[in-house]
Amino acid sequence: MLQTADDLGKLLLRIAVGVLMLMHGIPKVVGGIGFVKNLLASHDLPTWLGYFVYAGEVVAPILLLVGFYTRAAGLVVAVNMVVAIALAHGGQIFSVTKNGAWSLELQGLFLVGGLVIALIGAGRFSAGGKAGTLN
């Protein structure tokens, strides 16, 4: 019973992070990554790096939902959020909203969620099951 609850918790975390992150990636698939390229250019970085946003916001979330290469996908989500925070939200790291909440709580949740998934794996309710170090 305890193992089943543990695996259900892993599944729910994967679904939450996967669906919510994918909702950030779909508009980039449909509308392009012009914003991301402009952001990279403003930091004197090559704009072709912008295509990696698809890995962090489309491919990795799909892998999380399916439960395949889950640990790697969680790490990709976390790295994606570190880059997003550094490039787009660097000035907000220590700021709070008018209600007293951390300005980057959503980004922080994605970052920590990705790290936790990378550490705990997919669980048995996944395409990869419990087999392998990447699940």
From TrEMBL:
Highest taxon in the source lineage: Bacteria
Keyword annotations of the record: Cell membrane, Membrane, Oxidoreductase, Transmembrane, Transmembrane helix
Membrane topology (UniProt): Multi-pass membrane protein
EC numbers: 1.-.-.-
Pfam family, one: DoxX
Main location group: membrane
Localisation: Cell membrane
GO MF assignments: oxidoreductase activity
Name of the molecule in the record: Oxidoreductase CatD
Organism: Pigmentiphaga humi
Lineage: Bacteria, Pseudomonadati, Pseudomonadota, Betaproteobacteria, Burkholderiales
